[in-house]
Amino acid sequence: MMMVRKSKGIGERHQKILGFIASYQRERKHPPSIREIGEACDISSTSVVNYYLDQLEKANLLQRDRKISRGTRLTGDNNPLGDMLRVPLMGVIQAGEPILVPSESPFTPEDSVEIAMSMMPSREKGKDLFALQVQGDSMIDAMVNDGDIVILKPAQDARNGEMVAIWLDERSETTLKYYYKEKEGYRLQPANPAFKPIMIKKTEAIQIKGKVVMVIRKMERQAA
Q1: What is 84-216's CATH topology?
Q2: Which of 33, 69, 112, 138 is catalytic?
Q3: For domain 12-78, which CATH number applies: 1.10.10.10, 3.40.50.720, 2.40.160.40, 3.40.50.300?
Q4: What is the pTM assigned to this prediction?
Q5: Is 138 labeled as catalytic in the residue annotation?
Q6: Euclidean distance between CA atoms 139 and 113, whole angstroms
């Protein structure tokens, strides 16, 4: 069982929240959201969760960055993750049929996710990484599910078999698939037998925007 350092004035509910955050960070390598904390600790109101988090912050048991959705992390000896890397969340990518590039992104420049530096491949640290939220389930056999967040490094080219975010210029569409360059053009291969590959002719312009280096999994809703 994960133990956290206790402080004077911290009650059972505070301790439960600290324990959940520590266990979540250790298992998933990134902080939980406010909603996930509430669901795990039987708190229906996000404002009540924020009330407890504010008290824990005043007790110097955690740090909060209110500009991002997963900006809560434990401090000192309680933090199992070490140094964190902030990656901007740039928008939505479809893991299914290509979707039109939205005219207005649901995310702002301040949206970002935090990742433990210890979990990043050493060759990717310090790179200009960005994040996209996945919609659809065409990549589920690659362990990329609807609602997950993929971390990508910018790229303009890729090797066969790499998972990439691709913009289809002539269609004004975007998709997340395995990339294959073939004799007659390009094959964008899903990782779900329910979906057919997308075939792109050589004459059709495509842009590779990034290669997937990490997946942050959406926490499954706990059973009642």
Answers
A1: Umud Fragment, subunit A (2.10.109)
A2: 138
A3: 1.10.10.10
A4: 0.60
A5: yes
A6: 21
